[in-house]
TrEMBL record, chains A, B:
Binding of Mg(2+), residues: D84, D86, D88
Lineage: Bacteria, Pseudomonadati, Pseudomonadota, Gammaproteobacteria, Oceanospirillales
Any one GO biological process: L-histidine biosynthetic process
Gene that this sequence comes from: hisI
Catalyzed chemical reaction(s): 1-(5-phospho-beta-D-ribosyl)-5'-AMP + H2O = 1-(5-phospho-beta-D-ribosyl)-5-[(5-phospho-beta-D-ribosylamino)methylideneamino]imidazole-4-carboxamide; 1-(5-phospho-beta-D-ribosyl)-ATP + H2O = 1-(5-phospho-beta-D-ribosyl)-5'-AMP + diphosphate + H(+)
Chief place where the protein resides: cytoplasm
Pathway recorded for this protein: Amino-acid biosynthesis; L-histidine biosynthesis; L-histidine from 5-phospho-alpha-D-ribose 1-diphosphate: step 3/9; Amino-acid biosynthesis; L-histidine biosynthesis; L-histidine from 5-phospho-alpha-D-ribose 1-diphosphate: step 2/9
Similarity remark: In the C-terminal section; belongs to the PRA-PH family.
Residues in Phosphoribosyl-AMP cyclohydrolase domain copies: 37-111
Protein name: Phosphoribosyl-AMP cyclohydrolase
Quaternary data: Homodimer.
InterPro entries reported for this sequence: PRA-CH, PRib_AMP_CycHydrolase_dom, PRib_AMP_CycHydrolase_sf
Top-level taxon of origin: Bacteria
Compartment(s): Cytoplasm
Function according to Swiss-Prot or TrEMBL: Catalyzes the hydrolysis of the adenine ring of phosphoribosyl-AMP.
Amino acid sequence: MTNANRDHDDWLSTIKWDANGLIPAIAQDASTDQILMMAWMNKTALQQTVEVGEAVYWSRSRQKLWHKGEQSGHTQQVHSIFLDCDSDVIILKVTQQGGIACHTGRLSCFYRQLDTSQKAPQWQTVAPVIQDPEVIYSKK
Amino acid sequence: MTNANRDHDDWLSTIKWDANGLIPAIAQDASTDQILMMAWMNKTALQQTVEVGEAVYWSRSRQKLWHKGEQSGHTQQVHSIFLDCDSDVIILKVTQQGGIACHTGRLSCFYRQLDTSQKAPQWQTVAPVIQDPEVIYSKK
């Protein structure tokens, strides 16, 4: 590796990747600051995110790179990236294409809120489905 | 376990705890929606958070419950809790006492932004230290 390449990769080696080589990435709406989702990235996913300007995650369930929106069209244009004090979590500030980040057809994946008004707390759905997932994922 | 107890714990069993019995918890300012930090909770931490109304995390480095602010006074009053579609990430909407969530003395732990204006991207500090950590942690 040349010195130039080494310098070029400093920003990646600053990150404390976990035992699986991953880091949690929080996607936040760049204009409203609503949190849309959290997913995981490996080094290649983060490199591609910066190169392409759109969020590329590592799918832990499918064990492959996942260019968000590749099926649905609901890509995330990345405006800025932030790293926390422990260098083990990042935030992406994004524009969410289609206004739908969640595979359930909702804007945000965080659509359940804990209702603590009763003795037994309960998760309650508090955000509407914008588009039926069957429609979203049947697109060609 | 009685039926009543079982019902009472349904909201906890909905959560998909990871292999270490933990879930990532994103703390977000309830009024501005700025993301303050991300930490981890086990079942007891989340139960205590709901009971106490202040954020209680599980410190992975110290392997113990961590009532945020126990040393610094910078507690987090919890207004609402959200769960994502995969049931494996939560958001806490909080009021950050002292306006400092980060152990570096900054409001948010996400104080470094990736500067991609040069050929070699770099993490740049973009938020000020509000109070010297030596002062924060010398409080009695």
